[in-house]
Every structure is written in C-alpha cells, then in structure tokens.
Amino acid sequence: MPRKSSLLDDLITLPWWFNLALAGVVYFGLKYYLPTIEFNDPAFQGIGNAFPNMAGMFACIFLLTAAISAYHAWRRGELLDRQTSVKSVKAVNWRDFEHMVSEAYRRQGYSVQESTGGGADGGIDLVLNKDGNRILVQCKNWRSRKVGVTTVRELFGVVTAENASEGIVVCSGHFTKDAIDFAKGKPVTLVDGAGLSHLIGDVQKSPQIEPAVKDTVCPVCRGPMVMRTARRGKNAGNDFWGCSRFPKCRGTRSV
C-alpha cells in the first residue's frame, strides 16, 4: 500500500498551478467571502471576524507549496532528460529513480500519484490513472541483484486486492526467470533495463539515452552474447555482456 504522508506532502505532489489556484481561493474566500457570513454562535462569529486578517498568511502557505511543487516538477524533468544510458540510471538514488519513472509516465499522459514518506522500498511507489484505468507501480533500482518472483507475486496480490487494472514493476536491471514466468498471463508488466531505456528515450525532450540492446557480438569469436552479472572480484554485482559459448569462449564486453 502507498506509504502514509502528511497534508503538506500531498500538496507538494500536486501540480504547482493547482496550489497557486488554492492560494487565490483561500485568500479571496477568507478576505472577502467569510465576512459576509453571519454566525449565530458568538464564538464562531469571533473566528469569522479574525480570519480575514490572516488571509494573506494562509494564502502564503499555498504559494510556498506551489513554489516547491514547481521546483520538484522541474527537477524531475531535468533528471529524466539528462539520462544517457542504463548505467547512468543505475547511478541515481532510489528516490530519484522513482521521480524519474513518475515523470516518464506523466509525459505519456498519465495522472501520477507518488507515494511519500520514508523507506527505500515500501510497497507501491506510484499510482497511474488514465482512461479509467488504475495502475500500481513498483520501482526497483537494484544494482547488484535481479528482481525475483517474490516481488512480482506480492505486486500481483496488491493489484488483486485493490481491484486495480494492472501492476508494473520497473527495474534498471533484470528479472529472474521465475519472475518472468509468474507474470505470464497476469495483469503484471515487467519493465527491465532495456524496456526502461525505451520508456525514457521515448519521452526525453532531446532523446539521448542509448537503447539497451538484448544481445551483441562477442569480440573474440563473433558469436552472440548474453547479459550476465559478475559474482566475484572487484566488479561483483555489475552487469556485463558475456559470450553465450562460455566456458569455451570467455569473450566479454562492458555494458
């Protein structure tokens, strides 16, 4: 489930123009409309008389959230547009990864609700709405391991319980075979590093991210290569291209 958030958190995630409009409504409502209301209770009448003097203060709260919201929107867009490869995506922290994915879907026309609060992995990270469909998204920017079937199974359970249209797991690396097999035939989409590079590239203002390819040519035997993850040594946890004919051929390429 989405992480708990405060009212301020929720306001900041709203579009800046919405907060700006709220500032105007609050100011004119307290300053000019409230004094026209007559209260029978003296206590409420006293409050009604005092609030017009505080209209500017309350409006400033929404102006502040509008400014913060505008900054966050700019930063999400700038973060998305400067990505050049899956490697650069993996370099961002978990929270920026979520912001980047949310911006990519927002540019596809989705209304995006971002979860707020602490924790690097607290369930559903994004809720997408478009054309009456409600989609739950989990973001996994794991650098050293593949996303396993447990994550996919848990998301499917939440999708079912929430009666959502679909679930999406977005990662910067790969999924295990069990995860891929489990998702087949279910309303769950798995977006791996290659899919993420296309998702980002399709919505960048000036496309510059390098598409992640599924295979490449071995520099030793010229045979096909497959993506692998180093298990030991100084590069442990890093992805690389390894020859599909291993151990007969030990050709490699960096990602």
Task: Give an overview of the whole structure.
- The chain has 255 residues and is an alpha/beta fold.
- The protein has three domains: 7-79, no CATH class; 82-203, Trna Endonuclease, Chain: A, domain 1; 213-255, no CATH class.
- 44% of the residues lie in helices and 16% in strands.
- The protein has helices at 7-13, 16-33, 42-50, 55-81, 86-90, 94-107, 149-161, 177-183, 193-203; strands at residues 111-114, 126-130, 133-140, 166-171, 188-191, 225-229, 239-243, 252-254.
- Strand 7 and strand 8 (252-254) form a beta hairpin.
- Mean pLDDT is 83; it is low at 118-122.
Q: Notable features of this structure?
A:
Trna Endonuclease, Chain: A, domain 1, about 260 residues, 3 domains, 8 strands, five-stranded mixed sheet, about 45% helix, alpha/beta, three-stranded antiparallel sheet
Short description:
The protein is α/β, with parallel strands linked by helices. It has helices at residues 7-13, 16-33, 42-50, 55-81, 86-90, 94-107, 149-161, 177-183, 193-203; strands at 111-114, 126-130, 133-140, 166-171, 188-191, 225-229, 239-243, 252-254. Helices cover 44% and strands 16% of the residues.
Total helical segments = 9
Domain tally:
3
CATH fold call of the largest domain: Trna Endonuclease, Chain: A, domain 1
State the low-pLDDT regions, or none. 118-122
Rounded mean pLDDT score:
83
The CATH class of the largest domain is identified as: Alpha Beta
Q: In CATH terms, what is the architecture of the largest domain?
A: 3-Layer(aba) Sandwich
Structural class: alpha/beta
Rg, Cα atoms, Å: 24 Å
Separation, N- and C-terminal Cα atoms = 34 Å
Overall strand count: 8
Largest sheet: 5 strands, mixed
Widest beta sheet: strand line-up: 1-2-3-4-5
Secondary-structure element order, N to C: HHHHHHEEEHEHEHEEE
Query: In percent terms, what proportion of residues is strand?
Result: 15-25%
Helical content (DSSP H or I, runs of 4+): 40-55%
Inertia-based shape:
elongated
